[in-house]
Design a protein that fits this description.
Blueprint: E1 2-3, E2 6-12, E3 22-28, E4 31-37, H1 50-53, H2 55-59, E5 69-71, E6 79-81, H3 84-102, E7 109-110, H4 119-130, E8 134-135, H5 142-148, E9 164-168, H6 172-175, H7 177-188, E10 192-196, H8 202-206, E11 209-211, H9 218-231, H10 237-243, H11 247-257, H12 260-267, H13 270-281
Parallel strand pairs: 7-8, 9-10, 10-11
Antiparallel strand pairs: 1-2, 2-3, 3-4, 5-6
Helix pairs in contact: 9-12, 9-13, 12-13
The protein binds iron/sulfur cluster.
The site of iron/sulfur cluster has 10 residues, from helix 1.
């Protein structure tokens, strides 16, 4: 889109976080002048985080490497600038030579970063998958798939309709600003915000209930809550059997092996807080 003396492009922020904000990039003669949030993006509603607004500073920072470098011979520490065409040719030739040697692309592997499911990671992953290469590192969400039977999460906007929100070990007031908007919208309609974190974070400061769990004992706290949910019949057993792995063993473990009193002591939160937390989950 033309605007005055420059153009505006609609892009996705390459910040590689799960928000994948839609941005409007203002470009003049090939130079990025500024970025702003896209008001037509349903989740972010035209807002960006500080990192997003700083994209121009990042792109043009003096320490940023704006072209490919080749180290030759490998390990020598002797680097020289090469063109993008040369870099792409070197990579393509390597992929082709592996294919010629093994007659497939199975010897090609991507070690992807752990953590979020950012937009840029998805591009690399799709590229390697399209070649039949192997993704060598664990995908984000494998834990979710094992725990809930699916990778898809609820729409983040739906949090605005929640009655209770449990924020466990994350700090959206600082690093999930778009999510915080929907959390606060739910709170406008009387939703309770429960924050569990060893650190009294800015999100914890906004919570109706703050549970300061001792570092490394979250799993025990979760099992103590699960024990209460099982014992008080506040679970959907059919759903758990159909959608999770190892539910019977887990259920047996939490009911037989987990002591509420011990969990309260070891987590540092006490049994009253565990019961209160279980009440919100039920
Ligand atoms: S939250 Fe920030 S870093 Fe993440 S996609 Fe949006 S603007 Fe980019």
């Amino acid at each position: 889109m033309e605007k005055g003396d420059h153009q505006i492009f609609r892009n996705t922020c390459p910040g590689n976080c799960y928000s994948a904000c839609s941005i409007l990039s203002h470009v003049k003669k090939g130079k990025l002048l500024k970025v702003e949030g896209d008001p037509n993006h349903g989740y972010t509603l035209g807002r960006l985080c500080a990192q997003g607004y700083a994209l121009t500073r990042k792109d043009y920072h003096r320490d940023r490497l704006p072209f490919p470098m080749l180290q030759s011979p490998r390990g020598s520490g002797r680097w020289s600038r090469i063109s993008w065409d040369e870099a792409l040719s070197i990579i393509a030739e390597k992929i082709l030579s592996l294919n010629r040697s093994f007659n497939n692309n199975q010897s090609l592997g991507l070690i992807r970063g752990a953590g979020n499911k950012g937009f840029m990671q998805k591009i690399a992953e799709d590229f390697f998958e399209s070649l039949g290469a192997r993704i060598l590192s664990e995908r984000t969400g494998s834990d979710a798939r094992l725990g809930t039977g699916r990778l898809e999460m609820p729409e983040p906007e739906n949090m605005a309709k929640a009655k209770h929100i449990v924020i466990w070990g994350v700090n959206p007031a600082v690093n999930g600003v778009h999510q915080m908007f929907f959390i606060n919208r739910a709170r406008d309609f009387s939703a309770k915000l429960i924050v569990i974190d060893p650190v009294f974070t800015p999100t914890a400061a906004q919570g109706d209930i703050y549970i300061q769990v001792k570092p490394g004992t979250d799993r025990l706290l979760a099992m103590a809550v699960a024990k209460l949910l099982v014992e008080e019949g506040n679970i959907d057993e059919d759903f758990l059997l159909q959608n999770t792995e190892g539910w019977p063993e887990y259920k047996h473990y939490v009911t037989e092996q987990v002591s509420l009193e011990e969990a309260g002591r070891l987590t540092g939160v006490g049994t009253k807080a565990i019961r209160e937390l279980a009440r919100y989950y039920s």
